[in-house]
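Sequence design from tokenized structure. All designs in this work follow the same two-part layout: the structure record, then the generated sequence. An example of the structure record is given first.
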């Protein structure tokens, strides 16, 4: 067993439980408003498709967040201080963490916490190879539940929770507050949080970002049905569902859906799920915040704002927050 595989095998209360996951999927598909948690997007193909989304011209969040990090990395490094342990919630593509590790003063450790196990190992392996002085210790866990942090050979000066990509937006506001509390716990008393948050903006920009012309977001959305076919023996006919993403201005969120194009019945894990023509499954929310709204949320969860950076077009924000 390699060091990384051994790390992944580490017993952890938050290790995803397949039985719980399947029960949650059946609960969501049996509800009056059908839903599937976005965490199921990320099998290996889903993670690759998400990376492809990040490279799309319409998908401004990655481009703008990286540009903000590039511009302010000196200040970020100064605020974080030396020998930090970087704990990333939802590792995904490692472009952003490379930028961070390159800029920080002697980072001691990197702990990606991820639910997509294959992808986690691959990404962590690459980082361990490229950053031999950083102790890379992947954790296979559901980050919405408190998990044990691994011990490091060198004691870090402080924990920095890194949560880029506006993944916080996938949670409804009360659950986002709960997740910030988990982050505060994992950061510990002297810790900090560096978080990317997508901003409220002109709906046309949002619509283009979530309905790209190459159909990559549609493929990403539909891939969750392929996963259910493979892992739960379901018989979703992918061509009988279509991707839709709408912006609800009152709620300040993108709602991503899979719409049944006809009346049909789908079998899954011994259950039958009936769809009317035009009925949809909600697969993801992506909440947008104003800077002030996010600061109120984070401070309510026990953080103090030390610095916020916003791009010149007010598309995206990055916040540096310390545990209060
Ligand atoms: C929207 S992507 C963001 C990836 C990356 N941080 C970025 O900024 O590009 C979300 C990532 O979080 C992971 N993820 C989603 N829900 C999770 C959960 N509950 N626990 C652990 N990882 C999760 C996904 O597998 C995916 O890699």
């Amino acid at each position: 067993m390699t060091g990384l595989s051994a790390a992944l095998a580490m017993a952890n209360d938050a290790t995803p439980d397949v039985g719980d996951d399947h029960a949650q999927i059946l609960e969501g598909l049996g509800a009056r408003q059908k839903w599937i948690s976005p965490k199921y997007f990320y099998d290996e193909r889903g993670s690759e498709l998400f990376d492809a989304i990040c490279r799309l011209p319409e998908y401004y969040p990655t481009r703008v967040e990286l540009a903000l990090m590039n511009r302010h990395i000196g200040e970020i490094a100064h605020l974080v201080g030396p020998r930090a342990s970087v704990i990333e919630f939802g590792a995904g593509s490692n472009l952003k963490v490379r930028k961070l590790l390159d800029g920080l003063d002697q980072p001691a450790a990197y702990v990606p916490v991820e639910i997509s196990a294959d992808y986690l190992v691959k990404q962590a392996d690459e980082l361990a190879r490229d950053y031999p002085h950083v102790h890379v210790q992947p954790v296979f866990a559901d980050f919405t539940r408190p998990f044990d942090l691994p011990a490091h050979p060198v004691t870090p000066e402080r924990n920095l929770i890194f949560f880029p990509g506006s993944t916080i937006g996938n949670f409804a506001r009360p659950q986002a507050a709960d997740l910030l509390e988990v982050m505060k716990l994992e950061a510990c008393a002297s810790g900090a949080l560096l978080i990317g948050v997508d901003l409220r903006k002109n709906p046309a920009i949002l619509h283009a970002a979530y309905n790209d012309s190459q159909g990559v977001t549609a493929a990403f959305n539909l891939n969750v049905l392929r996963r259910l076919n493979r892992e739960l023996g379901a018989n979703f006919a992918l061509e009988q569902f279509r991707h839709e993403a709408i912006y609800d201005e009152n709620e300040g969120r993108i709602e991503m859906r899979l719409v049944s194009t006809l009346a049909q019945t789908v079998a899954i894990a011994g259950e039958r799920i009936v769809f009317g023509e035009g009925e949809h499954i909600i697969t993801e929310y992506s909440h947008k915040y104003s800077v002030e709204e996010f600061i109120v949320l984070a401070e309510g969860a026990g953080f103090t704002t030390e610095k916020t950076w916003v791009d010149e077009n007010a598309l995206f924000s990055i916040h540096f927050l310390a545990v209060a």
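Residues 1-11 have pLDDT under 50 and may be disordered. We note this feature because it recurs in several other targets discussed in the main text.
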